[in-house]
Every structure is written in structure tokens, then in C-alpha cells.
């Protein structure tokens, strides 16, 4: 449960610092930075857990922001 909560927190942190227009392009960077941050968190907890890989299986915005995300994607395509 601790690893799951730490992973969710790390993922939110990394995605929150990523421009919305870059989310779909930044998959590799997000995975890499999340892994690094998650490992730092677990090391601070002295958990003894080593993160081998972070892999994004689904890359979809949360339901409350889907419409806004789609608007940004359409605007980017129009541009």
C-alpha cells in the first residue's frame, strides 16, 4: 500500500509539472522521472524497495478534465 501511494504521488507530481500539450509526447520522460522520484521517496522511507521500471499502461486524462484536454488537443491540431 505504501509503494502504491508513493507511486501515485510521484506520478501526480511529474505530470503536474508537464505542459498539457506535451503529455502525449512525454511518455518516456514521465516514466523516467516518476521512477527516479518514486525511488527517492522510498529511499527516504528506508523501505528497502528498489523500483525497476515504471510503465504507463493507459495515458488518459481523468474524467473531470477530459473535455478540456480534448479542447487543447484540437486547438493544437488546428494550429
Mean pLDDT: 89
Which residues form runs of ≥5 with pLDDT under 50? none
SSE sequence, one letter per element? HHH
Per DSSP E runs of 2 or more residues, the count of β-strands stands at 0
Rough outline: elongated
Distance between the termini: 43 Å
What is the share of helical residues?
55-70%
Oligomer: single chain
Annotation keywords:
79 residues; mainly alpha; 3 helices
Quick structural overview:
This protein is 58% helix and 0% strand. The chain has 79 residues and is mostly helical. Helix 1 crosses helix 2.
Q: What this model shows, in words?
A:
By secondary structure, the protein is an all-alpha fold. It contains 3 helices and no strands. The longest helix is centred in the middle third of the chain and has 18 residues, at 27-44. It is elongated and about 50 Å long. The mean pLDDT is 89.
Topology of helices and strands:
Elements: H1 2-16, H2 27-44, H3 66-78
Helix pairs in contact: 1-2
